[in-house]
Amino acid sequence: MKSAPLPIMDLKGIGKSFGSVRALDSITLQFHTGKVHALVGENGAGKSTVSKIMAGLLLPDSGRMKFSAKPYTPSNRKEAEQQGIRIVTQELNLIDTLTVAENIYINELPQSFGVIRYRTLNKRAWQLLNRIGLGSIDPTDKAGDLTVGSQQLVEIAAGLSQNCRILILDEPTASLTDKETELLFSQIENLRRQGVAIVYISHRMEEIRQISDFVTILRDGRIVCTETIDSLSSSQIVNRMVGRELPAEYRKKTTSVGSIALRVKNLVAGEKVRTVSFDAYRGEILGFAGLMGSGRTETMRAIFGADPLHSGAVYLHGSQTPSRILSPKEAVRCGIALLTENRKEEGLLLPQPIRVNCTMASMQKISAGGYIISGKEKQRVDEMMDRLAIRCRAIDQSAWELSGGNQQKLVIAKWLFTDCDIFIFDEPTRGIDIGAKFELYHLLSKLAEQQKAVLVVSSDLRELILLCDRIAVMSAGRLVEIFADKPFDEAAINHAAFREHLNPVKDKERTFDI
Amino acid sequence: MKRFYSRLPVWVTDYLGMAGALGLLLGIFGFTADNFFSRSTFLIIADQVPDITILAVGMTFVLIIAGIDLSVGSVMGFSGAVIGVLLVKSGQPIGLGIMAGLFVGLGCGLLNGLVVIKWSLPSFIVTLGMMEVARGAALRVTQSRTIYIPGYLDFITETRWLGISMPFILAVCIVLLAQFVLSHTVFGRYMVAIGTNEEAVRLSGINPKPVKLAVFSLSGLLAGLASIIHTARYQANPNNGQGVELQVIAAVVIGGTSLMGGRGSVLSTFFGVLIISVLETGLAQANAQESTKRLITGAVIVAAVILDYYRQRIRNVKTR
């Protein structure tokens, strides 16, 4: 880095361990006003740990920090915020049952004699939201009713409502739509001009290229390098992150496609799934593309029996009679596995050991007459850990200690233990670092090679293009087209995703008077 | 100290901690009360704990699945009342009376479970309702009067091996059996899993409802079993077991079972029961007033939970 003016935040020799795991190993790093500084690295590289230390969420074991050339030792989030250092993480901090306006001004509600002046509050919130381009959000809506993306933007807005010198964004775009992402970027641009230092953590290389000035690459708790963004190519960044070369393309040739495994006909379920029909074959990976809220997750949950389906039929293994799948239990008995999009909430028992998570869905295989044969369990789990290369110290470790990628692999391990042959993956690589992503792609292709039917829902179109044999596109609850010709036409797929929105039913108009 | 502690195996920190606390209590009372360390003291304790222990085993399971059963005391009272009515007023054989007591307990537990799973209601409210219903039923069948059972059930309290009563041995057997079920069977594994994250269990292709139903039924059945022992000692008083549910929950929580579900141990529960019982007996022998006894017992319950908080922290650091 050039000899710049005095850094606003200066970290020297910051170290942090969790138990025996060294998360940060003596990090030295500077941040400057009016610059966007990207932190990149695989999950577990230490990006989040650094930012949490700066935001007062974690205390460092060693080293010192200087903020505006003064020693800086926040002992909690509040102290950091008082000095103007704010963090927005993926774990949202909003209170679902309060309104947007209440959330934004939670620390300084306008009041007279303890009674909140809602008129002033809402007006202020409305002005703030308008100023940053979020005019479509009604400040009197409950925060919990917003989409996750909007919630995230509101949280950033809340941060900006007060003194802000350094804004740390930890994977802010993970659940944003493209439009929301643009809004966020223009907001970041504004802040940069106002002289706010922005620390930006993301896995998305294009975004980092688009908005940042500097990039620091972390690996295994150490800094690999800090460079201006223009001096590195994206593939150089990725290579330095993982410390090895990655393949440019993933699945080169399609494995032989086998017999039909799953036929879905005219499925209608809940409010979001309107007409879905498709066939999935053994030995292929069928992708599901679409916008957020296009009903992909809901379709998969209905097939799996997790949510009730209204009409339509599911035929299994080429059968002519429809299967009635009314619960996940029946789905599993029919050989269907669903790996949900929220692995932490719905896929894993986080406080429980790896061993318990791994054998959860197939206890009959490690027990006799209801008695768990623990030797057998241990042996089978060990085998599975090796097979999927799950990195852990012991199978009695809790699942929440694993990194995102390893947690996802653990969910896959759970389902591999069952005899399922139809695997539905909903956003399998969300929040997972690039190295682990490729391991997961490898696992998915292997499943297809073993003549399983693999269905993948993903919001990352490039991922689907890389991985899938066919890509089904959903738009506003309908499956509008299935693309089978390679190379996939990215533009056509994107176009299809918007198809049902071209003649939209007029959305309920929102009015808001000041 | 922390480092030393964290190097010990998990079972040591889990059970020796409890045993240590119990030992400490015994030591204190040995010092403060005259003749605390006597055969009679231990017999008193052994006679006091069986019914509470049996209830606490059921409660441990219910808490592990993230539920709670407030009805155990009343159900015990109701079962006992039915036993009393059948034996004394209808002159039925003892075997039938005992079977009826178990059956009433099982029925109440089954009903609790059915309502909880059918409408996905919080068990707190459902069992609160059952607590009232069972108490009302107990008063109704006995016409609000204690039924004295002339010696029919004495064999239960009077059968002793080496001075230890049959109920105590029965309770210990149930504790060991329940701990085995919890840590070595699929049913036990499912209980812990459901208490940790029921939705994740459902989405793993396991129907959590039968497990929950079984746990509530078991709690009821054990209340029925406890009622036989309790009635044998205290007659069929329709007010038997009033407030016992809180004592039972306290014992379970002292044993380190989480009120949030997903974590618990039956053996530790047994230690919890012993700690409360030793405390009560010791304070009584030290001639403490009722008010002092309650003050100290309350403080010990909270202190135990605080201690458990630190124990968990150390344990988490250890597995990290």
Task: Outline the structure in words.
The complex is a heterodimer of chains A (514) and B (320). With 514 residues, chain A is α/β, with parallel strands linked by helices. Chain A has 2 domains: 9-242, P-loop containing nucleotide triphosphate hydrolases (Rossmann fold), CATH 3.40.50; 260-501, P-loop containing nucleotide triphosphate hydrolases (Rossmann fold, 3-Layer(aba) Sandwich), CATH 3.40.50. Helices cover 32% and strands 25% of the residues of chain A. Chain A has 17 helices and 23 strands. Chain A has helices at 47-54, 77-82, 100-104, 118-131, 148-160, 178-193, 205-211, 234-242, 296-303, 328-333, 343-347, 354-359, 374-387, 404-417, 434-449, 461-467, 490-497; strands spanning 9-18, 21-31, 36-40, 62-67, 70-71, 85-88, 111-112, 115-116, 166-170, 197-201, 214-219, 222-228, 260-269, 273-281, 285-290, 311-316, 336-339, 367-368, 371-372, 422-426, 453-457, 470-475, 478-483. In chain A, the strands form 6 sheets. Chain A has a 6-stranded mixed β-sheet, with helices on both faces. In chain A, strand 20, helix 15 (434-449) and strand 21 form a beta-alpha-beta unit. The longest helix of chain A has 16 residues, at 178-193. Chain A is globular, with a radius of gyration of 24 Å. Residues 504-514 of chain A have low confidence and may be disordered. With 320 residues, chain B is mostly helical. Chain B has one domain (12-319): Orthogonal Bundle (ABC transporter involved in vitamin B12 uptake, BtuC), CATH 1.10.3470. Helix content of chain B is 77%, strand content 1%. Chain B is built from 14 helices and 2 strands, in the order αααααααββααααααα. Chain B has helices spanning 2-7, 10-32, 39-64, 72-89, 94-119, 123-142, 154-158, 166-184, 186-196, 198-202, 208-234, 244-254, 266-285, 290-319; strands spanning 160-161, 164-165. In chain B, helix 3 packs antiparallel against helix 11 (208-234) and helix 12 packs across helix 13. Chain B is globular. The two termini of chain B are 18 Å apart. Classes of the chains: A alpha/beta (514), B mainly alpha (320). The A-B interface holds A 18-21, 304, 306, 327-329, 331-333, 338, 340, 345-352, 356, 360-361, 363-364, 367, 370-372, 374, 394, 396-398, 401, 414, 418 and B 184-187, 189-190, 192-193, 196-197, 199-207, 262-263, 316-320.
